[in-house]
Amino acid sequence: MNLERGVNGDSMRRLAFALPIISGVLIVLFLLDLMLGSVNIPLDALFSIMTGGDVKETWMNIFWDWRLPKAITAIFAGGALALCGLLMQTFFRNPLADPYILGISSGASLGVALVMMSAGVCGVGTIFAGMGLLGDVSISVSAIAGAFAVLLLILLISSKIRSNITILILGIMVSYFCGAIVTILLQFADEASLHSYTFWTFGSFSGVTWNQLPVLVLLLTIGFTLSIFSVKSLNALLLGEQYAESLGMNYHRTRIIIITTTALMAGAVTAFCGPIGFLGIAIPHFCRAIFVTADHRILVPGCILVGGIIALCTDLVSHLPGTDIVLPLNAITALFGAPVVIWVIVRGTRFGRGVTT
Amino acid sequence: MIERQKKTWIIGILIVVALVAIAAAGIAAWAPRTGSAPGTGPIANDSVESRDLFPDKISPEYAQGYSVEYHGTYKVVQIHDSWGRAAQNHTYLLVQRGEAVPEGYPDARVFTIPVESVITLSSPHISFITALNETASIRGHKSINLIHDEEIQRLAREGSITEVGTGNIAMDSLFKTETMIEMEPDVVFCPATGNAEYDKQPKLLEAGLNPAIGGEWMEDHPLGKAEWIKYFALFYNDEKTANEVFGKIKANYFAIKSIAGNSTSRPTLLSGIDSQGSWSAPAGGSYAAVLFREAGGNYLLGNDTGRGDNTLDFESVYDRAQGAEFWINTGTADSIDEILALDSRFTKFRAFQTGNVYHFNARKNAFGGNDYYQSGVVHPDIVLADLVKILHPELLPDHELYYYRHLAANQTVRSV
Questions:
Q1: How far apart are CA A319 and CA A326, in angstroms?
Q2: Which among A192, A209, A323 is the nearest to B345, CB-wise?
Q3: Which residues have C-beta within 8 Å of that of residue A75, sequence separation ≥ 6?
Q4: pLDDT per residue over A113-163, tens digit each?
């Protein structure tokens, strides 16, 4: 691989060909996501909503307050999860790594479970109730607190420990630890809290309001920017740690940047949308397959765009336009994701180039 | 030499085993004869059908989950599974103490009545038993903290009621099965479940305990739920009390319903709450929806005939119920602040803007135990009165909200 000298010409041509198509698909799906939903809003009404015409107030609100933030969230969250997956797969040189491998989503789950179920019979609950924290803390704030607590822990550990595999194992241990506490809380939760916690774990792009959207978009944009600036280091990492250092890369700094970026994006998405699975693990493989490259100069923007596209698709499907039923987003993402992962495993690493272990 | 010694040993062991088996068989054959001797004698001479030990009888009118036949010295109770699974339709034989167990019911589970000690695994069961004045029979309950009655709390503190659960989820491993076995209850009332994984009955049967289903929570009609008091009465021979108590509840319920029927207005309302884009609302045929209708309300999300809860898309709920006058039952949110913490877009509903938000958490204790789910099951008349008071305050001027509460900002749940 002549990654240092420049992008493989074939891949570049492919990208030049694919980029306009992908962007076009993204825009079309974005508009579709705004147009289709449980409530049937005719096209002319949609047009007058967008141009500020005179339409039913409820339709105005549905469009501006529900569909628009939902569609924007889907694009950003899908892109971020795909990107996180790519970063983790490269960083750990493991094709099965996903955005949550560092234990970020488990931390977020713990935060949410603590707030949702602290009314339970256990002592923790009464402490929270006594502190006046009960109920008033929103789900997203508690999830962010949980995710960033884990992030700090992982950063602290990774500044002391050199081995990536150790960090991987530590992440998994943190997941188990948080999972154990959540299980105990679940056991003592009343049915209503159990119900809402279950819904949170289903994942959804619909929970983000206009107040929260700027925060999410800002955090994810920072993540995108940091990733785009790290493409060179990521390419170097594909060759292995020693090679990367011999190429003049500051390995320690790169590592901190990658971990922070991933945790920032995965934490933000989990906080606002719940633990959305599968997109993060499946889309990087999908991108490697369609762009036939392991070059991060192509894969980073590719994952952001394709992630957005797939997220919009899953959102459309989960809302089953025309009905008032909603399906759990995580079920839909797995329906998309599982076949891709199976395909990658069965086909070996032919399309998974660059992440061979 | 060694071989022969081994053979001798084996033959010796075999002889001992055979002797033990014969002795055990002898004891087994002899024991029940002495045990039942005083009872069986007179019965054999008497015609079983000619005697009626149960002069007061019940028959369910609204409840769909059980039926009963009386047979002089025993009652045959049929449990009809709420999920329509034939394998879960049980037959219970409730045999008067000292009377013979009738033949011809090979699959039936036998209970000796009247029961004197019971364990309850669901909080409404406590309220049914209390309404029958049989509180003293309760020896154990799943989670004492979630029980609203001061009386039960006191009995638990004094040690006459033992907590037999360690959590709130219905799973076998979370019961103190050993404690339950030691208590030797006459019956363990456990909630019906549609999920075989959470079904406690097989485990309880294995442990030698007598589980009996309490399926009141699957009834769709409010009076159908309350009518399970008659089922509990079967175990105590308290049919008379059950008929009286239920008769009063029913009369009161219909009186309130007819008062509500006098009103010309039918205020619109929505129900349930959204969690991440999925709105859980009572289905049109559910308990809550029936109560909304009987209280003279126009429930905008209940055009279907389904049971339980529907999961609806937020925008669809908003489109249908934005203009609703009342928002009744707010799910997990106990106050206006908690509603806002869930999603600030709830302010777009008219009922929220006009402050007409009500939830059934007036009697919720610090541990999350809600009396609406406990005594509210036995008293649909009071629940109905609450709803009429909310929707048509002028019709019941003297009624004060009992289970329901008007939600306003900065309120916290009253701890009891």
A1: 5
A2: A209
A3: A26, A30, A308, A311, A312
A4: 887 776 443 434 444 444 444 444 567 777 878 887 888 888 888 778 878
Name every chain B residue with its beta carbon within 8 A of the beta carbon of A137.
341
Task: Write the pLDDT tens digit of every residue in A316-355.
Answer: 888 887 777 788 888 888 886 777 667 766 665 544 444 4
Residue of A nearest to B173 (CA): A187
Nearest CA in chain A to B143: A121
Helix (H) or strand (E) segment spanning residue B42: helix B2-45
CA distance B141 to B155: 11
For residue B88, the model assigns a pLDDT of: 80
Q: Which residues in chain A (140-199) have CB-CB distances under 8 A to chain B?
A: 186-196, 199
Domain parsing of chain A, residue ranges:
1-98+213-260+271-357, 99-202
How close, in Å, is residue A63 to chain B by CA atoms? 9
Q: H-type helices in chain A, by residue range?
A: 9-35, 43-50, 57-61, 68-91, 104-117, 123-130, 139-160, 164-188, 191-202, 213-229, 231-238, 241-246, 251-273, 279-291, 296-318, 329-346
Question: So what's the pLDDT on residue B77?
Answer: 93
CB B93 within 8 A of CB B102: yes
How far A307 CA lies from chain B's nearest CA (Å)?
Answer: 21
Q: Per the CATH hierarchy, to which homologous superfamily does domain B66-250 belong?
A: Nitrogenase molybdenum iron protein domain (3.40.50.1980)
- Entry pTM: 0.76
- Please report the ipTM that was assigned to this predicted complex: 0.72
State which CATH number among 3.40.50.920, 2.40.50.140, 3.40.50.1980, 3.40.50.2000 fits the domain covering B263-406: 3.40.50.1980
Q: Which residues contact A119 (CB under 8 A, 6 or more apart)?
A: A125, A129, A134, A189, A190, A193, B367, B368
A67 touches chain B (CB under 8 A): yes
Size of interface A-B (CB pairs under 8 A): 128
Q: Do the chains contact at B348 and A61, CB–CB below 8 Å?
A: yes
Handedness of CA A14, A16, A17, A22 (dihedral sign): positive
Q: Which DSSP symbol is given to B392?
A: -
User: Is the separation of the CB atoms in B381 and B252 below 8 Å?
Assistant: yes
B332 → closest Cβ in A192, A205, A325: A192
Crossing angle (nearest 10°) for helices A9-35 and A43-50: 100
* Cross-chain residue pair A61–B318, CB shorter than 8 Å: yes
Question: Quick check: B343 and A209 CB within 8 A?
Answer: yes
pLDDT band at A10 (very low <50, low <70, confident <90, very high): low
* A207 interaction partners in chain B (CB closer than 8 Å): 276-277, 343
Q: Does domain A1-98+213-260+271-357 have CATH number 2.120.10.30?
A: no
Work out the pLDDT band at B116, boundaries 50, 70, 90.
very high
